[in-house]
Specification:
This protein is an alpha/beta fold. The protein has a single domain, classed as Response regulator (Rossmann fold, 3-Layer(aba) Sandwich). 38% of the residues lie in helices and 17% in strands. Strands 2-1-3-4-5 form a 5-stranded parallel beta sheet, with helices on both faces. Helix 2 runs parallel beside helix 3. The protein is globular and about 35 Å long. The termini are far apart.
Length: 141
Amino acid sequence: MAEEGTTIVLAEDDVVLMDMYTERLKSEGFNVVQAHDGEAALKSIQEQHPQFIILDIMMPKMNGLDVLKAVKADETTKDTPVIIATALVQDMTEIKKMLGANDTYLIKSEVMPGDIIEIVKKKLNGEDAAEAPAKAPTEKD
């Protein structure tokens, strides 16, 4: 179970995925703040100061990469672990430049919700999630 008071901002515009991830995260004891677009995600991150952020890349109003840039540029949020989740295989070069040591990039079709929860738990416990099933693909993949 999550440490009491652990807040995650979950930014996802797909209502079915949002509900599924929210239910699974709450069942593990996390407080979940939902954001259905990038602007709402950034506002929630700035107001809530979550311990973890899960960002979809393709979202209305502001995409997840722009949210990530803003998070990493802000001294109060730059070290917050982030999972970037996408349905599309993106050019990893630009994305890797934005990711910090505690951040993870994954492709939604390659992982199950339980995998994402395991990454969250490991990152929050200070463990290296590199061995997690949702390991980020290399540029050769």
